């Protein structure tokens, strides 16, 4: 879809699309053709734009503006009830847009784990500006116009913040593809795939464990769903009174004697976050028991690296830690 639409320079703003859809919807006795819509927009300035070449092609791809056999344009019946106001139209338009991109390869090349990360300060997803090739600058502008993304408050980051209003639809559309691409189906052995499954199950367990610990008064964020580069998997809270995330959890799963592998990036984040950083070690054989609690190591950079712990032994070549206590 995006590859086919890349030839167009402007996909229109909310105001433009609301006008197009409302006019066509409110003129059932008049036959509206594509040329009629183009004529209506010709030589006008709307939201500082004068070119609207991609509006109708986008609406066709989203199946909002349907072409009939007689050449007439008709609005999808299921969308008509959302034209009562521009704000209502915007939310449903965004949802329809993202759903229409569910199987679009270009879209998933942009919104992938390489470019998406979690902004812990603003408690939302962020995406690198470099994710958008110049060829798809008009698509990026569409996302900005509909406030799906906005400039990161810290300009030096050169990133966009993804509007938390649409997080649920992103979870539905983007996450499954991110997970699929993480696997690298033909490249990874079955053992690696099983490790991935084990890791995700343990992370989900810890997310649920934390929400239960906090009496379901806080929404714990499963950061690793989107990005593996943050140095921790779960952003949680010390107590239900915490105003912002202040417990950052790296999850490790094991069977038998507790052990884990610790990456250089994870160690560095642990060093920076100090007492707010935790390792949660989850026994896969026990995590389905109602009363099971994972082993927790607070401030592991200090307690395992700087201060030698006689219960743990580090295996230097791969930084594997074995529980010996």
Account of the protein in words:
With 325 residues, the protein is an alpha+beta fold. Helices cover 37% and strands 18% of the residues. The chain contains eleven helices and 14 strands. It has helices at 2-5, 14-25, 34-41, 55-61, 86-100, 105-110, 137-145, 167-183, 190-213, 264-273, 300-306; strands spanning 65-67, 73-75, 116-119, 124-128, 149-151, 159-162, 221-222, 234-236, 247-254, 259-261, 277-283, 295-298, 312-315, 320-323. The strands form four sheets. A five-stranded mixed β-sheet has the order 7-8-9-11-12, with helices on both faces. A four-stranded antiparallel β-sheet has the order 3-4-6-5. A three-stranded antiparallel β-sheet has the order 10-14-13, with no helix packed on it. A hairpin with a 7-residue loop joins strand 5 and strand 6. The longest helix has 24 residues, at 190-213. The chain is elongated, with a radius of gyration of 25 Å. The N and C termini lie far apart (58 Å).
Which properties best describe this structure?
four-stranded antiparallel β-sheet; alpha+beta; five-stranded mixed β-sheet
Low-confidence stretches: none
Estimated share of beta-strand residues: 15-25%
Average pLDDT, to the nearest integer? 86
Supply Rg. 25 Å
Helical segment count: 11
- How does the overall form come out from the CA principal axes? elongated
Number of strands: 14
User: What class, by secondary structure content?
Assistant: alpha+beta
Percent helix: 25-40%
For the termini, the CA-CA separation is 58 Å
Widest beta sheet: strand line-up: 7-8-9-11-12
Largest sheet: 5 strands, mixed
- Order of secondary-structure elements: HHHHEEHHEEHEEHHEEEEHEEHEE
């Amino acid at each position: 879809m995006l590859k086919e639409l890349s030839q167009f320079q402007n996909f229109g703003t909310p105001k433009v699309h609301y006008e197009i859809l409302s006019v066509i919807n409110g003129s059932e006795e008049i036959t509206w053709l594509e040329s009629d819509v183009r004529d209506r927009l010709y030589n006008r300035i709307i939201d500082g734009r004068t070119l609207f070449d991609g509006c109708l092609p986008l609406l066709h791809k989203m199946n909002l503006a349907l072409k009939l056999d007689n050449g007439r344009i008709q609005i999808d019946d299921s969308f008509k009830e959302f034209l009562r106001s521009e704000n209502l139209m915007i939310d449903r338009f965004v949802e329809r847009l993202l759903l229409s991109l569910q199987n679009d390869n270009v879209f998933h090349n942009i919104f992938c784990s390489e470019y998406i990360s979690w902004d812990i300060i603003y408690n939302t997803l962020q995406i690198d500006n470099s994710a958008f090739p110049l060829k798809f600058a008009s698509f990026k502008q569409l996302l900005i116009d509909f406030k799906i993304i906005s400039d990161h408050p810290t300009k030096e980051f050169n990133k966009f913040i993804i509007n938390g209003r649409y997080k649920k639809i992103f979870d539905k559309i983007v996450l499954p593809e991110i997970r699929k691409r993480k696997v690298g189906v033909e490249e990874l052995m079955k053992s690696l795939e099983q490790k991935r499954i084990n890791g995700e199950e343990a992370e989900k367990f810890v997310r649920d464990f934390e929400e239960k610990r906090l009496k379901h008064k806080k929404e714990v964020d499963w950061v690793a769903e989107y990005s593996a580069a943050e140095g921790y998997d779960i952003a949680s809270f010390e107590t239900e009174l915490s105003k912002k995330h202040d417990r950052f959890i790296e999850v490790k799963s094991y069977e038998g004697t507790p052990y884990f592998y610790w990456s250089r990036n994870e160690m560095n984040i642990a060093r920076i976050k100090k007492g707010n950083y935790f390792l949660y070690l989850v026994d896969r054989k026990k995590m389905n028991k109602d009363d099971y609690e994972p082993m927790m190591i607070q401030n592991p950079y200090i307690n395992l690296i700087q201060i030698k712990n006689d219960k743990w032994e580090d295996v230097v070549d791969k930084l594997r830690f074995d529980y010996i206590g």
